[in-house]
Please model this.
Amino acid sequence: MTLMFKNILTFFMVAIAALGTYAQDDDAITFEMKLSKDKLGINERLRVDFTMNKDGDNFTPPDFEGFRVLMGPSQSISSSWINGVRSYSKTYSYTLAPTARGEFTIKQATIVIDGKVYKSLPRKVEVTAAVDKPSDQMTIDDVADEGLHLVAEVSKTNPYLNEAISVVYKLYVAPSISVSNYQPLDNPKYNNFWSQDIPVRRLSAENGTYKGKPYRYVVLKRVVLYPQKSGKLEIEPLSLDVTVDVPTTKRDFFGGRIYSQTNKTVSAGRRTINVKPLPEKNKPANYGGAVGNFDFSVSTSKTTLNASESLQAIVEVSGKGNLKLFQLPEPDLPGSLEVYDPEFSENVRTTLSGSQGKVSNSYTIVPSFKGKYPIPSITFSYFDPSSETYKTLSSDEIIINVKEGPVNSAVANLPGNAGAKRVVTTGDQFNFIKLKPDLRAIGTNYFFGSTRFYLWLLLPLLLIPVAIALGKKREAIASDVVGNRVRRANKLARKYLSKAKKELGDKEGFYIALEKALHNYLKAKLKIETSEFSKDKIASLLAEKQVDQGTSDGFIALLKNCEMARYSPFSDVQMQQDYDKASEVISQLDKQL
Model:
């Protein structure tokens, strides 16, 4: 039995080895040349790697015309097993120095693998004049500058008026460095644009390319813009203060590379958007500013009812475009219908391609008389940027049939309406009047001389000491100047922070409300518009008003937290601390201002 088990085990081991050998032989063999750069100064160095995924013999390098070999060939081998699959790599490396300026070609290298000759592809290299700072002599700041880029990617730079465009801010980081922290320095103000932020729920790094080179990038901010005027409009840049970890040539005791840290300021740069005006040719007379691709409908909750009953008439526009930026057309209803102000409803979501969903007005209509009432056809016009044409949609006419109810006398007396029914009165019109009241006598009850009479007589005398005590308390409160200031300050703080308190737990809503509360407080106290001021301007303004440094720093720190919250995760504990701090800072400011 043991012998049989050994034979079966040996069979399976041989089969697995055969399958592994077959799979390895079946893999595609690669042999390629990699360059550290394809353009360099004559005073820089070039690294050339020849890499293969299977070991070979008789490696023959090219002659490296135009270059001098400083080091090489050095060999490195990497082999690993992952999930039962073997990964193998062998590399021959050279370090070269250019001998002249110009364009040179590094020719093919050859190697023999499994009896076959494999050749690498030739690569061209451009050698320019000497650079001020060769790559092998670059400082930490130079490496950070070269490997860190903030880019604002605009979906369209020449949109029509009120056509959606998206702006995505990406931070590109070279593989050789890493980012440990960042702080926004200046957020763009989208003047002459209607803007809608799309929150970035989680920051995650992805692989990409920047100017043809491999980079990692993270999306920091996304916003959808609708231009509100034609011409050349500028998008202000987003600026960040970034902490960068740059590897050095030094290593620690265990052989690990030592990193050095530096802070860099990066900016996305200004972007210019050339906004085209909407064409005047063929513009409909009833055009109300809608831009996009829409459907239009008018519907009612019922078409048959009795007088004094109500129905709903709904005017709805759905589709994709500037749904929040135009007015819905109004129905032209007969004067004999009682129509209430419409109730507006919207169900719109915003993505990078723009806003989409539907908006509607719901009219409550109550007919007073019997008859048939038409809701005439309504037209809705919009501009379609994809076809660059105006389009007009029309609704169907709807007939409201009121079956039961009084007849409108103005209609009944018109010529041709002689056959209309008249309203006939009956003997029941006044049946609500009681002809036999059934009155009863009320018992005698004298007030003078009663217990209640004497209580009301003595009440003013009892209230005199109470009034004296209250007067003294009011005088004491009025004389307490410091206490009154504190009470007024706390009341003012609660007034401006009430909205922020309701949003506790919702990071985005809380910090938007908190920032508005801080600006509205300064606006109320100083009678100026502070929302357009920078934090430095606000700090200098508080200094002019002789606000102490600690209170001013606390106010500016809260504004910074409001900005940081848009890009960084904040806990409920942090939000509660910021709310308490804001109450304290507003109270202190109110006493000092």
